[in-house]
Amino acid sequence: MTAVQEKHRTDDLKALAEQAGRDLEDATAPEILRWAADTFGRAFCVTSSMEDAVVAHLASRELPGVDVVFLDTGYHFPETIGTRDAVEAVMDVNVITLTPARTVAEQDAEHGPRLHDRDPDLCCRMRKVEPLERGLASYLAWATGLRRDESPTRANTPVVGWDERRGKVKISPIARWTQDDVDAYVAEHGVLTNPLLMDGYASVGCAPCTRRVLAGEDARAGRWSGSGKTECGLHG
Ligand code: SF4
Q1: CA nearest 225: which of 236, 207, 195?
Q2: Which residue has the higher pLDDT, 214 or 143?
Q3: Pocket of ligand 1, candidates 127, 220, 227: which has the most ligand atoms within 8 Å of its Cβ, to mutate?
Q4: Where are the domains of the chain?
Q5: Could you give the CA distance from residue 84 to residue 101 in angstroms, rounded to a whole number?
Q6: What is the CATH number of domain 3-195?
Q7: Taking residues 197-216, what's their average pLDDT?
Q8: What does the UniProt function comment say about this protein (predicted)?
Q9: Residues of the binding site
């Protein structure tokens, strides 16, 4: 594809995303994912942190065998890896595990141990942002489990939007859901969830950067607690 063709394709995709964001604002999550499956087919994937498998489950009903992309940072709780393995074993999805260019040991040798304590932005860039860039390269659209009620930084999440940095359509089919909606869907469909959600964690990320939440805190208060950092850079 020439640079001009690429520019046209990017402009068309961006216009498509923005129009769909308006048209689908009041649509249900299955309707949004049906649109994604019809529009992009196998050029569409779901990303999952393996906090739960709600979006993967929703997507698999519209696009059986859908690719579910998981970032294995090397710092996950064993429960998260176990959830990934269970999803792969029992759901009609194709789990793809992405890994960073360096192992944790190689990163420690190059940057010193516990980079996550000293420079979490650099650690997230190397262990999350860069692997996801590579992993999403072959897709036109990706879905996330972002919800507006999770934190103030996510309050304006569109159900379909344009991922300017990656030049892809970004779909958040449960953006308008509440935690109660998620809990009801999990209960109704027996969807796999990370066991840590039953152990005081409301949002599950890398072990060194995640703590349990206290009563009254928002769901993401346990992520990078005390550092001022609120997002890993995947959704910026
Ligand atoms: S969440 Fe923490 S350990 Fe995981 S990549 Fe980011 S800084 Fe590193």
Answers
A1: 207
A2: 143
A3: 127
A4: 3-195
A5: 20
A6: 3.40.50.620
A7: 90
A8: Catalyzes the formation of sulfite from adenosine 5'-phosphosulfate (APS) using thioredoxin as an electron donor.
A9: 123-124, 206, 209
